[in-house]
Structures are given as structure tokens and as C-alpha cells.
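Exercise 7. Predict the joint structure of the components listed below.
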Amino acid sequence: MTATQAWLEPREEGDAFVLALGGAWGVDNLAAIDNDLRRLHPGKRRCSIDITEVSRLDTAGAWAIWRTRQNWESDGATVELVGVTDDHQVLLDAVGKQHMEAQRPPRAPNAFIEMVVHLGEVTVDIAKEAADLLAFLGQITVALGRHALNPGRLRAKSLVFHMQEAGLNAIPIVGLMSFLIGIVLAFQGASQLQRFGAEVFVVNLVAISVLREIGVLMTAIIVAGRSGSAFTAQIGSMKVNEEIDAMRALGLDPIEVLVLPRLLALVITLPLLAFVADLLGLLGGGLMAWIVLGISPGTFIERLNDAIGQWTFWVGIIKAPVFAFTIAMIGCYEGLQVGGSAESVGQRTTRAVVEAIFLVIMIDAVFSIFYQLVGI
Amino acid sequence: MTVAGARDLAIHIKGLRTQFGEQVIHDGLDLDVEKGEILGVVGGSGTGKSVLLRTIIGLNRPAAGTVEVLGQEVSDERSERQRSLERRWGVLFQDGALFSSLTVAENIQVPLKEHVKLKGALLHEIAALKVRMVGLPPEAGAKYPSELSGGMRKRAGLARALALDPEILFLDEPTAGLDPIGAAAFDQLILDLQAALGLTVFMVTHDLDSLHTICDRIAVLADRKVKLIGPMEVMLQSEHPWVREYFHGPRARAALAATGS
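Solution:
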């Protein structure tokens, strides 16, 4: 039988210090004994470490013994190992060959300094990212220019595939959401406007808010969450897999092969999706107006004609390609920024969605100001 | 501790059959690996070398047959028995398979924390020791796997496999992608560890130099079975066409001349 515990026994022999070790000096029972071992400081004198009784030794145990010897010797002691078998010697040599000073775990830096450093890093990152994004926009513009001169370069199969993925397959969710928002708008509007006896203006409320803002904005937000993130994850995984490098090495331009089909697919399909959203938003609003206020479909359509001008619909739809361009550009850009690891794919995907939604809303605000200035 | 006397088996495989759908990889495969030996497994592409390794460590469920490691049957259940068995082997996957969100040192600390609950200074020391033992520079410990070269990732993977001083080491093409100096150092490292710890090594390899210099026995996988097993002399005398081509090809002759056997 072998002992399953490791033990140590310090004793004085004349003016010498003897440390007897025994049992199984393995990684699994070292934790129990390491603190005791560290506490021994014999000082400047003759010492010996007797490992005759050690029944099992592995590299961790050998390290503990070697470290003890090293520490004592640096304190000025002379240390002798006793009872070392050939097997033990091989292990001690393997460990000792590494010439290690006992390493301390890195000390955690001051929390406040960490925070300031982090703030600085984030600021620099944002500036750098803005510059990179601008450069990326330039690359896309050049690639688009090349395609305009030579339309045969366009990867039609890929374009159609992404139009189906990002456009056609998004119709159910976009339509349902828009329909529900139409219902909510009409319902909330009705209860407010009824107080003034102006319930018929619910039609104006629903029509103008859905057509000008909500239809296209909500579609863009859904597409950013649905397709923008997918673009980042797809391109990011390819980056991790070195597929992007392989493409470059084969003389293919990733912008042309990966980015443009996705970008064009979104620019084409987002306005169509926004149109679907407009229709279903009006349908939901009309349905609710009929149920709650008793405005018949005929009256609704009549009021609709009065409420919207020739620009109301276009004011919303014009924004769609701009939103699409932004979402696709951010999605692809973040995908290409993925570095080495799987974790990075996740981080970049999150960033892509957040940035795309933020930019979409910001651009929407800019459009509002613009429309105000030109008076439509 | 085991009883001395009759030869102890580290791995005992009997009548193993593995298949993926219709595709049969192994059929009636028998293989015994003795304790303390270094076994090299060779075979053409698609003969299931890596699949065999994965089956032994319980990542694939065999369709039939038994796999015993250190006298215990391997299963793919997450039982306490299986866990204690897993603690006794170390695995180096082909590309290191390091956890990408952790640094190299943290990767090595994972088994140390998980299985033996090491803490504090000792944990860092042992991790640093393993980093140096596999021939990585000390500063590599603080790096993330994506910041390392392929060869360094492989060494870091070995350091993690060695964290608990396992009894059996499974290596999947350990020297592939290493420069000759690094590969020779890797071979020497495995020999040293084997001598010091009585390690059993199960190694899938194509490196003829490794086969010559460190393998005690070589197993050839062909026709869904272990076609031939034995030391290098047996391989060199075999009449099997694939074995002849493998061990008598131009590269094999160069390796043979280099080791001078």
C-alpha cells in the first residue's frame, strides 16, 4: 500500500536542519501541504531534504521540492537532497532545467487607473473605428464603381440568394410587427382623440406616422437585428477560418465577393419590405378604427386620400435604401474586423447590431431635419 | 498503484466497431497498449486513426465491442467514474484545441482548478512550470491562443494535456506543423516524460522520425483493423504493400539513415 497523503516533518539534527518528506507528492495533494512548506525558513546553515519516504512523485511535487531548495539556497543555506532515486532525479532535472524563479501572480493594478486607461482606450478605438469605417466606405464605392462600368462582374447567384434570405424570408416577421403597430397606434390615438370628438383624425395619425416614420424605421431595425448580425457572423466565421485570407491569396476581392452581394441585396429588398410594412400598418390601423370607432373601410380610404399628400409615402420609402446601405456596411465591416477567436465573432456581432440601429435612428433624425428644411 | 507481475494493459480494445451511418470505419478491431510504452498509430488517410483516438477517450460511442482504459470501461456518460478516468489521461488535439477566450496559462489552470482545486501562488507556479517544460517562452503564458503560431499552440495544448501529470497521453499528430528542431525537441520531451513518469503514450503520427526514435511499437491501421503491430523491425520486414511503401519509401529511407538503425 502506498500513502495517499503527502507529509513533511522538519527536525533539528545538531546544528543542521533536516526536512523529511514522505507519501505521495503529486499534484492532487500538494495544495494541502504547500503552505506549510512555504513557511519553513531554516536560515543560513546546513540543511538536507530527505525524500527517501516519498512513494510517488510527479512534476508538480518535484517542482515544490526544487523550489524549496532554491529558496533556501538564496537565503544562504547549503541544501542537500537525500534519498533521491534515479526516477526522482530525472523528474527533478526536468523541472530544474527550466531555471525558474518562483513566479508571483501578476498584481491587480489600481482600479481607478484601470478605469482611466480604459476610457482612453475606448476613445482612441472609437476614433480609429470611425476612420476605418470611412475607408471601408471608400473601398465599397470603388468596387461599386467597377461594377457600374462592368455589370457582368456582379455575382448574380449570391445576390439573389441574399435577397431571398434577407428580404423574402423577412416578410412574415416584418408584416406581423407592422400590423400590430398599426393596431396599437389606432387604438391609442382613438382613446385620446375621442375626448375632442376628433376621432376621425385617427386615420391621419395612423397614415402619416406609419408611412413617414414607423413603417420604414421598424423594418430597418428588424433587418439590422436579423440580417446585419447574420452578415457579421458569416463573414466573421470565415475570417476565423482563414477563408478571407485564402480568397485574397486566390486573387478574389472579399469586398466584391462577400460585401457587394449582401449590400446590394439589402438595398434592393429593404424598400420592398418597407412597402409591405406600410401596407400592413395601414391595414392594422384601419381594422382597429373600424372595430373601435366604427369608421368603415370606405370612409377610411376616403379620409386616407385627404390625409396624405403626394410626398407622404415617398418621404418614408426614400430613407429605406440609405438605411439598408448603412446596415449592410456595418454588418460586413464588423465581420471583416473579427480577429482570431470565436469569442470575437460574438462581440463583433453584438457591436454590428447596436451600431447599425444607432446609425439608422441618427440618419432618420437627419432626414427629419432635411425634410423640415425643404418643407415636405 | 498497480500490482507488478503480469504485464499491465493501459488500453485494451476488443472487437471494436465504429460507424457513421452506413460508413463503417473500424470492424472487429483489437488493440492492446501496455503500460509505459509509446505506441505510434499509422495508416492512410481515412483509415480512422483520429476516430480511434476519439473512441478510446469516449468522444465517439462504438457500435460494438469494448474499450477499456486502465482497467475501466470507457463510456460517453458524464458519470463520476468517467470523470475520474478522464483525470488520468491527457489529450492533445490536432490544432491544440485551446479555449480561445483564455490565455495559455489560464488554459493550463483549467484542469488544475477543476480537478485538484489548486489555488493561489502554487496554481500560477505549476502553470508557469508546464509552459516552460514544453519549451515555450515564459511570456507565452499571458498570451491568447490567437496570438500564437501553430507550433506554439501545439505546445500550449501539450502543456494543458500534461497539467495533471496524466498516466496516459493521447497525441493526435503532435509533430505535424513543427519545424524539425521543434519536432525533435518534442520527441525528446515525450521520451523524458515517459522515463520520469512511466507515461503511456498513444500517438497518431505520420512523422517517420518520431516513429523511429521514440515509438516502442507501431500499429498499422488498414482494412478497418489493426493490420500489423510491432516494433520497427517488424514493420521493415512486412510484405504488406502499403506497409512496404510507407516504411521503404524515399522519406522513410532518409529517416532510417538518420537514426542509423
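Discussion. Chain A has a mean pLDDT of 89.
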